[in-house]
Amino acid sequence: MKLIGMLDSPYVRRVAISLKAMNFSFEHEELSVFNDIEKMKVVNPLMKAPSLMTDEGILLIDSTLILEYLDRKCNENYSLLSKNMEQFTKSQYLIGIALTLCDKAVQLFMEYNRRPPEKFYQEWVDRINEQLQAGLSLLDQQVIINDAGYLIDNRIMQADISIAVMLKYIEKKLSSIYNNYVSKKLKVFSSAMESTSLF
Ligand SMILES: N[C@@H](CCC(=O)N[C@@H](CS)C(=O)NCC(=O)O)C(=O)O
Q: Is the shortest distance between the CB of 187 and ligand 1 below 6 Å?
């Protein structure tokens, strides 16, 4: 399998970390959707990352669909989604918040770094800021770190990975949001995850 995309993308990173957690061997081609457009178009004409080329030569797009494919393919001991319905539902809930926060964080970064200043869209930026603050506050209320240091089970699962990569993206790209709106509990969780060998 080959993963295509840059690790500064939270979506690419969640797939890369999950591939390792699921014990897959894979190649990684670090192509940027902005700086390597011509090479990217050859791999994926839709110019989206992550893209995953399967061993059968099928190109999968969208981190959640890629992870669903990998979860079905992996040895079930390495699955990152619980078979227990209560844990699974909690996990999907937390991943939903994490992915929405990823979307909003990427959109805000684009507003500040890609949109021409004369086209700056203040109402949209205000809306995204409100969504980021609401999502981070909700996440803080909903996250319970267990004695093993994880959120769903006694080992790392997809919710842990998705929340951790989202927090790191915000820390690196939107430091004022991170400093002002990410709770102490979430910062401690992020540091703990980032210090593990998978990350
Ligand atoms: N929902 C998608 C989002 C992926 C995404 O937006 N990736 C960005 C890079 S961080 C991208 O491909 N941007 C280029 C574009 O949207 O045209 C996923 O989970 O994979």
A: no
